[in-house]
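Database export, one record per block. Field names are fixed; values are copied verbatim from the stored entry.
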Amino acid sequence: MFLNDLDWEFAIEIVLRTLIMFALILIFLRISGKKGVRQLSIFEVAIIIGLGSAAGDPMSNKENAILPAFLVFVTILGFYRLITWFAMKNEKFESVLEGDPVYIIEDGIFNLDAEDETYAKDEFFSEMRQQSIEHLGQVRTAILEPNGNVSFLFFEDEEVKPGLPVMPKLYKQKYKTITEPADYACSFCGNVEHVNKGRKVCKRCEKDEWVKAISSRRIS
């Protein structure tokens, strides 16, 4: 089951083929100028998938020569260079190819225009916690970049306002009926309102689930 009459001479060739194809992939990534996976755009991820497909067969199939795969690599690299050059010359084309930055947080609350973005809230909260952010009121602006990174701009300490907490224990304490007067943040959009008692609908998004707001300053 594991060997299936494996030709040991070809096994050594598989090792050599794999090293050659893997080296070609690394060379391509080096030429592209990218330092890490998080710097790759959607277009570049598609390029990497294409390279992997081209490299896969010559690694383990003796019927597939390395030279045709190398030609595929050269073609993909040439196409990549052409597309990136054209994107530099045409902003509209670059926008279609790479995507645009998306404002996730503005002035300490979620941007409702970005609610359709495929960035899960728990994933975003995790990103915030890694930046030592406790609540939305510490963040002036958060931008989801085309490469998947999130850029945060912060309020000065004296400008920090009450905001929706992103710490798991606090965020899970949600209320539909308020029993204690305080500032509460809408769990959906982050809008903060002073609520006395009873049920309350958010003026901004018309949701009715609240989390007690906090106003601590950011510790960097």
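Remark 1: The CA atoms of residues 137 and 162 lie 5 Å apart.
Remark 2: The chain has a mean pLDDT of 82.
End of record.
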